[in-house]
Amino acid sequence: MDFVLHGLALLMAPKVLLIICISSIYGLFVGAMPGLTATMAAALLIPFTFFMDPVPALVSIVTMSAMAIFAGDIPAALVRIPGTPSSAAYTQDSFELTKQGKAELVLGVDVIFSAIGGLMGAVVLMSSAPLLAEVAMKFSSFEYFWLAALGLSATVMVSLGSQVKGALAMILGLFLSTIGVDITLGYPRFTFGSVELLNGVNFIPAMVGVFGVSEVLRNVLQGELAYPITRVKAGKIFSGMGRLIRRYKVNVLRSGLLGTFIGILPGAGADIAAWLAYAVSKRSSKEPEKYGAGSIEAIIDAGTANNSCLAGDWVPALVFGIPGDTITAIVIGVLFMKGLRPGPMIFERQPEIIYAVYLAFILANLLMIPFGYLAIKTSAQMLRVPKNILMPAILIFCIVGSFAINNSVFDIGTMLVMGVVGYFMEANGYPVAPIVLGLVLGPILEQNFMMSMIKSEWDLTLFFTRPISAILGGLSIIVWFFPVLTAFLEKTKKENR
Amino acid sequence: MEGSLEKEIPVPRNYFDPIFVLILIAAYMALSTWLGFYITSSLILFLMMVKLRVPYLRGLVISILLTVFVNLMFYKILRVPLPIGFFGW
Question: What predicted TM-score, i.e. pTM, was given to this entire model?
Answer without folding.
Answer: 0.89
